[in-house]
Each structure stands twice: as C-alpha cells, then as structure tokens.
Task: structure prediction
Amino acid sequence: MTNFIFKNPTKIIFGKNTISSISEEIPRDKRVLVTFGGGSVKENGVYKQVQEALKGFTFFEFWGIEANPDISTLRKAIALGKEEKCDFVLAVGGGSVIDGSKLIAAGILYDGDAWEIVMKRDWTANKALPLASVLTLPATGSEMNAGAVISDRANKEKFAFYSQYPVFSVLDPETTFTLPSHQVACGLADTFIHVIEQYLTTTDQSPLMDRWAEGILQTVIEIAPQIRENQHNYDAMANFMLSATMALNGFVSMGVSQDWATHMIGHELTALHGLTHGHTLTIVLPGTMWVMREEKGDKILQYGKRVWNIEGSDRVETIRKIIDRTEEFFRSLGLKTKLSENGAGVETIDEIERRFEERKVKFGENRTVDSAVARKILEKVF
Result:
C-alpha cells in the first residue's frame, strides 16, 4: 500500500423523511441558489419538501440543468447567482445537477468564464461558495466527492475537473422510487464500474481495499434483480443509494492504484453521441478488460473468483468467461453493450483515436492506454 492522505468532510444525512433537515444545516443568513434538473422533483414530492424546509430562507431557483451538464446552461445559473448575490448553493437532483452546481459555486466567485475553471481541472486555484445536495438519483457519488464532469455540447467535448466537497448531502431512498428504469440501470452500472476502476488494477496492494470493493460489487449484483422486480423496495434502493455513494467517496481507493481509462473513453462516447454516462461504461469496460488482460490478468482472475465464483485452469479462457459474465450482468440491466447497437460507427472510433492523439493523453494505472490502445478497446466492443 502506498502513502496517502485521506479526508472527506461531507456530512451524510441518510434515510426516510430527511429532506426537512436542510433547514438545520444551512445558516439562516445565507442567500441560497437552489439548482434543479428538468422538473421530475415536482412530480415525486421532493420539490415540495425542499420548499417547506427552506421557509424563512432567502432563496432563488434555477431550473434546467441537463444530464451531462452543459456549460451554456451553467453560465446562466452563474449569472443568476451573481445577480442575486447568492452565497450558498443547494443542488437538488442527481449527479449531473450536483456536478453542474459545483461549477456554479465556483463560477459565482470567478471573474472570468467558467469554462476556464473546467480546463484548469483543479478548483483549488479558485474560491467557491459552500455547496450542499439533496440526492435523487444514485450513480456518480458526486454527493460525497470532489469531482465533477462538465460538457460543452457546442464543441462535443466533456471533461472532468476537481471541485469542492459538498458540506452535507441528504440521501432519502424514497426519492428514487419513481425514477425511469433506464436511469436506474445506468446508475447501477455507474456504481459498479466506479468500483472496478479503483479495484481492477494489480493484486497485493491492499487486502482491505479489495474486500471493501468486492463487497460493494457483490451488493450491486445482489440488489439489481430486486430493484428490476420492484423499484419501491426500500431496502434494495437504500443499499443502491449507499453503494453509489461509497463507490466513489475515496473509501475504496486509499493507498492503491487506479485506472479510469474506461471512464475517459466513455466520456467521449457521451460527448459524441449523447449516451448516458453509466451506459457508455458498460460498452467500454469489457473491451478494456480484454485488451489489458496482460496487465490486469491476475486481478481479473481474483475478481472472477471472489465476485462471480469463476475459476479455471486455462488462464485466457477463464478471463474470457469472467468478462463475458460481467457483460451479461450489464445486459441483464437492460443495457446494450456494443457500439454498433448504440448508433456508433467506425467514424466514432476514428474520432476518439484522433482526440486522444491530439491531446497526447495516456490513461490506466500504468499510463499505457494511449490513442492506439483506445482504438483497440473500441474495436473489441464494436
């Protein structure tokens, strides 16, 4: 295990009927900018609960933060926050609303264009307003981490950057009961692959991190069919929500190497084709596992044995079975796992290879996933 520094300052308020607690967590003298997505919170009762909790507060509403939040939308929210002299941001929604709100919180105090903050990739160079969240869609873990991903649809680009941690986040599993099944499927996949990106590298780094990671993976596998059968199963949805948070709040990555190549390739698929983020990962991961099987082989075999109970004497054939079983799980969620099934052609592979080559990027735990390797991964899943 390597040296590390770990700190997660986010307070998690978890369980039924907890949205009302935001009135006790936000200082009364704050001018609050409340950010929302497309309006589903008005249908599931969340909006009413937030309004009730904010009685007596000075607050302003901004609506319309889309999936894979677009910089043009966020600029409008920043302008509103500046105009109303807001000094606290409350994000109500899924990971995209929270991600976008992280940029809004920084952008309100920034003199230049907010896209400059994204391209710096590190918010610590800038000040930011305090941020909190009410989570309604488990997936990204943004409610308890410092990351965010922002799109520029005009230029078909999507980049991650590091932002501030939320001061607190409210997680009420009942807010998930009315989510579209495709969003739930993508959230389960996103949770699963967040763990994989931190786990599927090399063996013998940390048995503790491995067991924590495998525990989340096994939990997602166990609850997925329960959720598919009954999305009003409180315990299943509660475990889903907490698994998504734990998958990317730093608890499974202490002192171990990480990958993230699948994510970086997946971001390009979203930018080019508008595919939901979690869905893109299910397309790319099987290809990453196969193309990188020499580097990752020992860990793939450990993952197969401990998570799927798959073992065999033929190393390559066993790895193939493990990858196939992983892909079968994604398909059991109702997700299509081939590029060709999702409107992407050879020109998509060409463009992603070109972008990676132009940026001179290298991803993966050993920084071996360059433009040429990315092409091989995408060709494998075509």
